[in-house]
Design goal:
The structure holds two protein chains of two kinds. By secondary structure, chain A is an alpha+beta fold. Chain A has 25 helices and 24 strands. Chain A has five domains: 5-88; 93-120 and 346-484, no CATH class; 127-330, no CATH class; 488-520 and 721-859, no CATH class; 529-720, no CATH class. Chain A is globular, with a radius of gyration of 38 Å. Residues 1-7 and 479-483 of chain A have low confidence and may be disordered. By secondary structure, chain B is an alpha+beta fold. In chain B, 57% of the residues lie in helices and 14% in strands. Chain B has four helices and two strands. In chain B, strand 1 and strand 2 form a beta hairpin. The termini of chain B are far apart. The model of chain B has no long low-confidence stretch (mean pLDDT 86). Classes of the chains: A alpha+beta, B alpha+beta. Chains A and B meet through helix 2 of A and helix 2, helix 3 and strand 2 of B.
Amino acid sequence: MNKKPQTQSKWGRKFLFFLLPVNEKESLIGDFDEIFEEKEREKGKVGALIWYWTQIMLLVSSYIKESIYWSLVMIRNYLKIAFRNLTRHKGFSFINISGLAIGMLCAFLIFFWVKHELSFDRYNEKGESLYRVLQHIRYSEVVTWSITQGPLGPALKEEIPEVIEQARYSFTQWRIKHNDNIFMDIGGYTDPSLFKMFTLPFVQGDPDTALSDPRSVVLTQELAQKIFGSEDPMGKIINVADEYDFRVSGILKDLPDNTHFRFEFLANMDFAKERGNTVDYWKNSQFTTYVQLAENASMEEVNAKIYNFLDAKPTLEDWEKLSLQPLFKIHLSSGIGYDYFGTGNAKYIVIFSAVAFFVLLIACINFMNLSTARSLLRSREVGLRKVVGAFRSQLIIQFVGESVFHCLIALVMAVSLGILLLPAFNQLARKEFTPDIFLRPDVLLGCLVLVVFTGITAGIYPAFVLSGFRPVSVLKESGGLSGRRSLFRRVLVVFQFCVSVVLIIGSLVIFSQVHFMQNKDLGYNKENLITLDLNSNIQKNYEAFRNELLENQGILSVSRVHGIPIYGYYFSNSRWNWEGKDPEKDVLFRANFADYDYLETLGARIVQGRDFSEDHGIDASGDTIIINETAQKVMGFDDPIGKRVTLGKEEFHIIGVVKDFHYVSLHTQIEPLIHILNPDRYSAVVARISSEKIPQTLQFMEGSWKKYAGDYEFDFRFMDDRLDELYRGEQRVGRIINVFTALSVFISCLGLFGLASFMVVRKTKEIGIRKVLGASISGIVLLLTKEYSKWVIAANVIAWPLSYFILKQWLQQFPYRTDIKFLIFLGTGLVTLGIAVLTVSYQSIRAALSNPAESLRNE
Amino acid sequence: MDILSRREEQILLAVGYLQKEAYLVAIRKHLSSVQGKEWSIGAIHIPLRRMEKQGLIHASFGGSTAERGGRRKKIYRLSSSGLAALKESKRVNDILWTNFLKVTTLSGFG
């Protein structure tokens, strides 16, 4: 007896304390202890302990059974009530849940897009240790290129110990002939080590030997299928550019779509060398150089080592520096020259993520707002539940659970809608998502988090507010709470409309910027201008081809050029020299090779001097140049005609000045430009045609083309179409933003609609009394509409400066940009107000028209 | 009033017999010793609770004693309705027994 009972089983007693009924804990534990001691006397300590724990286990099992039973009973009740509420307010529930579903849908789609953008090149197993070498060159400012000199890669591997492997890659386009079928495809020349560094699985062939022969080529499955159909492509011969025969030595699995380089075939770098490419030449940058670092090497250390690497090499420019760019960062770093396949834009990732976040937030706010509003009608249910003994925690669980349940329904809706709309979204965003993306573990986890998070945030507020009611006051008051908490709801509505207004203004400004770029006067006439790729056949017979074309009335002018005013295919050089040049200041000049009448064909205005012309024999020497106004300004000539300009040993004379025109896209500022006549460097034919009888003219052109070009296709393009393509990026972003703007406005209006109808229900009696006392219908509508209009106006006032600031930032990236017009703000304000008033007035008018006898009858 | 179940009847009888000492352990001990079989705590406690709710017994807490680590005993006593229920139960049992004995020829029932 003197033994302390605590020593028997401390844990057991704790257990018992937890399991036993509240008011009998003490006596029962005492009973247990007493029997335990008796058992101990009879059977010894072990036997007693066994008995004790058996009892506890029995208790635990019945405890669990009981609590599950009762919680099941309660859950059944909760579900029943939730379902009844859902069906009793069908319209309300629909608005509430579908709003949330649409918000979720937006979040999903953008999440997929962002995820895909971030996944670029991640499929490469060694990706962590792979880098691209960037070259920084100082002209008037420092420019960064993704292309480097041919000998650089091998030199880096030899001289920098951390660089354990390198591969060069040079972009090319091939005209492949097989059994009289012609295929134009893009690919590259590369070192065989590319296969060791990147994850490029072979379907057929051996990566180690595939490119050992300079005349071997590796094709992707897709291209092999296109060329050979079902035949076995291995060992087959394809003809390239009518000159070279290549043997197919390997078939690669198709590249995934999240890769920064794309190619349909790969050929050996040695072939490029054989064909006169400047592979061993330090003065020409043409190759993308990839390096693999040793596992323990750090990028910073290597960067420090290679920064001045080119100083000791016989390169073209004085100031050329190198740095490494991690493979995974390539896709999202824009602003690097010569990224052939276009990059993503980290800015858009931020913008879209923000949009998705806000649309989802609006939807959640709405959901919260409506749930709160509606749940106030349920105060009596809460009162009754409390009276019959519900704990506060039970009520909170009930309301949170109900809102999680609604979220689940919304999720199901969102996923089904998502599967339905995926093809449309793919088209909009240029991606290839398949419905099974919803089954990926991260998406599933995201769904779960979304549902739980939204459900809890939406449910927690009404749960706490409602569960805090005092049952007496709730049951006594006829209508529950009125007016209270509406400040909070008001703030939420204002916030919602703020986001919508920012989005509307944003999409309008993006649209007007795209419109501005498409319609800005480019300094030449882009209409009715046809471009054709120049090929060897046409080049050989150019004079005849041109003369034949010019005989047609519909063709006004024909010329050849190196770079059409679309891409930056220009030669850049800062070594130009002229009389009076400041020797300290290097200026980057762009140079383009243009044939006779090029500027005239383009419709650019010559402000001084003349265009290249066959009438002046001197032009044929190639020593004459035409500069643009910016170049004139840089050179500082008042009267530039006849001035001498040199480039190294070469000497040129200025014969004309052309008014500045946009010779690359409007994303770039106009820089000094020099036109040189050089028949060997042209790559395109341009022709100005009359705006009448275009089909006939084109037919005629095709006839002449066929005559001179042999089997090269007549692949003509209109200049204005090609220009439109330049702004596809912005257009696409604009379109995506438009869609999400429309959705966010829609969701906000749904919310407002719901709130208004809720308010009308609450004010039914007030309206009835007002009518009885002689209020007019318009007076009542105005009364109900006024309140919401106020909020929307407040939202506009907050959103205007905010969106002005954000868009000002966005527009900074364009050297030629539209003004942000005040009209856009005013228009947006009026439109949102109009929509809000329309939404609310539907409910108000219905309420105002109802017969007061109906609403007052049941008092 | 419903007829008591057999277990309830036995527990009530034990409570009545033990008088001021009628707490769970004592009831259990008494029943176990009479029947010669071990009763679990739950088998006694659950009917006790039920009958307490029905008002057949009243409960009060006794003073704390050293033997139970200072924990108080919950002591039960019969209420008047408990007593009435026992009487009713006995009446029914007696009649049933009498009727049975009148006709039985089995040995051992003298």
